[in-house]
UniProtKB/TrEMBL annotation:
InterPro entries: A-D-PHexomutase_a/b/a-I (IPR005844), A-D-PHexomutase_a/b/a-I/II/III (IPR016055), A-D-PHexomutase_a/b/a-II (IPR005845), A-D-PHexomutase_a/b/a-III (IPR005846), A-D-PHexomutase_C (IPR005843), A-D-PHexomutase_C_sf (IPR036900), A-D-PHexomutase_CS (IPR016066), Alpha-D-phosphohexomutase_SF (IPR005841). It holds the Pfam family PGM_PMM_IV. The keyword Magnesium applies. CDD domains: PGM2. Signal peptide: none annotated. PANTHER family: PHOSPHOGLUCOMUTASE 2B-RELATED (PTHR45745:SF1), PHOSPHOMANNOMUTASE 45A (PTHR45745). Keywords: Isomerase, Magnesium, Metal-binding, Phosphoprotein. This is Phospho-sugar mutase. Residues 55-195, 219-319, 334-448 form the Alpha-D-phosphohexomutase alpha/beta/alpha domain. Its cofactor is Mg(2+).
């Protein structure tokens, strides 16, 4: 039961209502208040859900459903975040006048939240630059460095459900355009709470912010076209493209054309921004059914490849022909794409090697496949595994390529320090065209990878919960009674990252190592009510088919064991 009694709850709701500039959320909250005053238990429970807690500002910024109250995304919460971040910037400014560049995608209220941020930043005395239209997240990440800004804000909820929105924060200077990490998140959060003690209606605003020219997007396009680095023909592969109702198409189409790739066949029903996401239940290429229209379009076109961005175009999904399945196409896992692009990056590094040999770091998150570390060893490159999230991957020293299994890839760290689904698409199309010119398919390249480095199999279990306490209970049980075996395989080591481990910052992650070289990672999701379990196994013995069968069987057995353990 909440510690707040109903009179206190109603008082807080009325105070929120008094400062809310949005007619939609005002009406919604007013209706709840009236119902609660009339004795509606359902309305009181709804108000508790909105006012007992607030959306926490962390290293992922803010993300949540659009609705009234501090535990939802809305103009009041965004104003508090913008003003709090402005105070932090002024406190830590390296320049007399810090600067911030602000971008937004096509989700509901993204443009409103972005303009509010620009006005509040300008009102606080910060040079604010608003991007000229809805644009992909990677363009914002690029613009921060291109304009040498102190910070960046991107209004997006990436691939979350349709009614969500979010607020991502980046830093320039010594952070080189990466997303914030601890302890900066806590410092900004403290300023936000200070702002929340007053009314956002009293915050100074100004319309004296700048609007960036189209030159910023064009500079991003120039830099992204340069990712296609091979001299092979660029039109050997035909492909389908979907923006998943997001903002990727306008920018990606020009990049593809300028790079010389074949004109993509668009998934027409998903190509323009639409905050309702009408053709998908969940606008994430990883989700079942999300790419069905892409498969249908590709079958009709006879395409060699499918390229998909998520709604803010920072993620990339790739599918290839596979006659063994009903859809005729198979989406590659993030680990498969990550391994192929990592091999490509290592090859490029070897062509640029000096007397010391190839130089640079391949990096991936700790829950991504160990395949990338095998590539790094083979090419004598440095390897770094990081905590989950590109705020960590992008900070690896000497980075030349980084990825995480959730369809995120960083192929051009000199220009963008975040995952970038458009530049990753260019890199993959460049690779696919070079292979096709030699008569090799992407599927055959995956077999080549297995021949050289071993076959790496992966699986992921996502346990979605309605009660968040269930996640803590499962993690606590695993720590209190660690398993000695998973299935028939002995557990040799369990690393608890809760207090940090091996140079990694503290994180609520368990890493379970097994006698046969397999690995299981368990962690709560950072953005959704899920417990995530990542399973990896490999084999380098026998033929490619032998290796595939061995690694796949190991993963299947571990998945079954983890389902039983966490039931």
């Amino acid at each position: 039961m909440s510690a707040k009694d109903t009179p206190q709850l109603l008082a807080e709701a009325r105070a929120w209502l008094a400062q809310d500039p949005d007619p939609e959320t005002r009406d919604e909250l007013q209706t709840l208040i009236v119902a609660a005053e009339a004795g509606s238990a359902e309305a009181v429970a709804d108000l508790h859900s909105r006012f007992d807690e607030r959306l926490a500002f962390g290293t992922a910024g803010l993300r949540g459903a659009i609705a009234a109250g501090p535990n939802r995304m809305n103009r009041v919460l965004v104003a508090q975040a913008a003003a709090g971040f402005a105070r932090w910037l002024l406190e830590h400014a390296e320049d007399a006048t810090p600067s911030v560049v602000i971008g937004y995608d096509g989700r509901k209220n993204s443009d409103v939240f972005a303009r509010d941020t620009a006005e509040l930043m300008a009102g606080a005395g910060i040079r604010a630059v608003l991007l000229p239209r809805l644009l992909p997240t990677p363009v914002l990440a690029f613009a921060l460095r291109h304009l040498d800004a102190s910070a960046g804000v991107m209004v997006t909820a990436s691939h979350n459900p349709p009614n969500d929105n979010g607020y991502k924060v980046y830093l320039g200077g010594e952070n080189h355009g990466s997303q914030i990490v601890s302890p900066v998140d806590a410092e900004i959060a403290a300023h936000i709470l200070e702002v929340a003690e007053g009314s956002v209606a009293d915050l100074p605003r100004s319309d004296r912010y700048e609007v960036a020219s189209d030159d910023v997007e064009q500079a991003y396009i120039d830099a992204t076209v340069a990712v296609a680095s091979t001299s092979a023909p660029r039109d050997a592969v035909s492909f389908v493209y979907t923006a998943m109702h997001g903002v990727g198409w306008r920018t990606a189409r020009e990049v593809f054309a300028r790079a010389g790739f074949s004109e993509p066949v668009p998934v027409t029903a998903q190509i323009e921004p639409d905050p309702a996401f009408p053709t998908v239940a969940f606008p994430n290429p990883e989700e079942p059914g999300a790419m069905d229209l892409s498969f249908e379009t590709a079958r009709t076109a006879g395409a060699d490849l499918i390229v998909a961005n998520d709604p803010d175009a920072d993620r990339l999904a790739v599918a290839i022909p596979d006659p063994s399945i009903g859809d005729g196409y198979r989406r590659l896992s993030g680990n498969e794409v990550g391994a192929l692009l990592g091999w490509r990056a290592a090859e490029l590094a070897s062509t640029r090697a000096d007397e010391r040999g190839p130089v640079g770091t391949l990096a991936c998150s700790i829950v991504s496949s160990p395949a990338l570390s095998a590539v790094a060893r083979a090419y004598k490159l440095d390897f770094a595994d990081t905590l989950t999230g590109f705020k960590w991957v992008s900070r690896a020293p000497g980075l030349i390529y980084g990825y995480e299994e959730a369809l995120g890839y960083l192929v051009n760290p000199d220009t963008v320090r975040d995952k970038d689904g458009i530049s990753a698409a260019v890199a993959f199309l460049d690779l696919a065209n070079a292979l096709a010119a030699d008569g090799v398919t992407v599927a055959q390249q995956l077999d080549r990878f297995a021949e050289r480095f071993g076959f790496f199999a992966s699986d992921q279990i996502s346990l979605r919960v309605t009660d968040l306490s269930r996640i803590g209970e499962i993690m606590a049980a695993l720590r209190a009674t660690p398993p000695s075996h998973l299935g028939e395989v002995r557990v040799t080591q369990i690393d608890d990252l809760r207090d940090g481990f091996g140079g990694l910052p503290p994180s609520d992650v368990l890493r379970i190592l097994l006698e046969d070289g397999s690995r299981v990672m368990v962690r709560p999701s950072g953005t959704e009510p899920k417990l995530k379990i990542y399973i990896d196994a490999s084999s380098d013995e026998g033929s490619v088919e032998d290796r595939r069968a061995t690694a796949t069987a190991r993963v299947a057995a571990l998945a079954e064991a983890m389902r039983l353990l966490t039931a």
